[in-house]
Design brief:
alpha+beta; 3 helices; globular; 93 residues
C-alpha cells in the first residue's frame, strides 16, 4: 500500500489545514492522531533545528492509489532541514 504525506509545522497550521482539507479537527491520543474519514493519520514529532531548538512537526499521511511512499518510517526520520526543502511542507511564517 502506498501513502501520500505532508509535513506541517505548528498546531495552528495543522488545524487550519485539516479544516480546509477534511472539514474536521484533528483528534489526538498523546502523539498519535487522526482526522477525517479517509484514513488520515497524524504523528507529532519534534525535530531538532540547526540552532539547537526544536520544531513541533506533524506528519499527516494516508493511503492513496497514487502515493509514492511505501514506508512511513522513512519519512519520519527526515531532518528538519530536509523537511524545509520539501515543497509540500507547510511551515511557520
Amino acid at each position: 500500500m502506498a501513502f501520500i504525506y505532508k509535513w506541517i509545522e505548528g498546531r495552528q497550521n495543522l488545524e487550519e489545514y485539516c479544516q480546509k482539507r477534511f472539514n474536521d479537527k484533528p483528534h489526538f491520543c498523546e502523539t498519535i492522531g487522526k482526522v477525517g474519514y479517509e484514513g488520515a493519520k497524524i504523528r507529532l514529532i519534534y525535530k531538532r533545528k540547526a540552532d539547537g531548538g526544536y520544531a513541533e512537526m506533524y506528519l499527516l499521511y494516508m493511503p492513496h492509489p497514487k502515493g509514492t511512499v511505501y514506508w512511513i518510517s522513512d519519512i519520519e526520520t527526515m531532518s528538519y532541514e530536509d523537511i524545509r526543502l520539501d515543497k509540500t511542507a507547510i511551515l511557520r511564517q
